[in-house]
Design goal:
400 residues; alpha/beta; Aspartate Aminotransferase, domain 1; Aspartate Aminotransferase, domain 2; three-stranded mixed sheet; 16 helices; 13 strands; 15% strand
Length: 400
Amino acid sequence: MPANKLKWIDRELESLQKQGLLTTIRSLSSAQGARLVINGRSMLNFCSNNYLGLANHPRLKAAAQQAIETWGVGPGAVRTIAGTMDLHLEMERRLAQFKGAEATISFQSGFAANLAAIPALVGKGDIIFSDALNHASIIDGCRLSRAGIKAYKHNDIDNLRRVIEASIPFEKALLVSDGVFSMDGDLAPLDKLAAVAEEYNLILMVDDAHGEGVVGRGGRGIVDHFGLHGRVDVEIGTLSKAFGVVGGYVAGKKTIVDWLRQRGRPFLFSSAVTPADVAACIAAIDLLEESTELVDRLWANGNYFKQGMRAAGFDIGRSETPITPVMLGDAALTQKFSQRLFEEGVFGTAIAFPTVPQGMARIRVMLSAAHLRADLDEGLAVFKKVGKELGVIQDKRRKI
């Protein structure tokens, strides 16, 4: 009998189970919204990146349906052969206008945009200066580039300068950071990063996946938030979070966009985004350009919920955005907390290593413009109940 060459996987899975780190994936039986149907039960949704509630918006659905009737369901090819439709070019034009950028190029996802941009801009013999808490897609893009990778302490400009100085001389280098750090909800000091990039002649790149539709004027992103138009070379955007659809893009200088059309491997070797998705994204841009109502409501919801969680005694970290990390530390406790939330009707997923460092496990609450005040009050009540039950917060009435 031959040896089981995959037995090591079983051992690893068993180890994850014992540590409370085994991911449980729950399937949804409804569209995205403030509430979801899971296992036949209506749940309060505190997990999704659907910041503005657009994933099930009637205007986006109507645009997608009309696009299917006109353009069909699939592009049929990569962009450089026969997959570029007028819709793709229209979306790229509209995105550039919305972002205040010279040009944009779209990809299948924000992850794909990072995998396209970084290896096209730097390679073997070059250097990348990367924030220690950058997203996995940035990390993977850096590895694929074969450039030397120098991590600097999270949002620490003094440490960044020391790392750069220790790396001199170099011919070409890239400075890359998340704009909004998705696990903690804090912002990159992009104004200071821009100054450093200009001082040392670095290509500056920011991944604004969680700032798109959230920060800046009417959700125009972190470059707009800091007023840095023209000073950031590459801005990565996603269309799968606040925009409610799917896809990603690079916005920035026309020279870089032109280069990515020649050397961005996901653009060259993977089929284009579907017509329905592109049309829905254009409809999302329309909504954001017409009104700031959804962005304003998202922030009002985030501020209200965070105020309630702090008052209850929860540690919600250093968030500067509607992202609300409920810091619990221990992975097993976090899994138990998540399960109790679920039993009480709140869908709040446990996040632990390797997504976050060891000892930094949390429930990450992702609020939406679609949540009503009653939804937030319900969620706060459940968090307080479970927090007291598991000894995370104190019952203030008992202490009196």
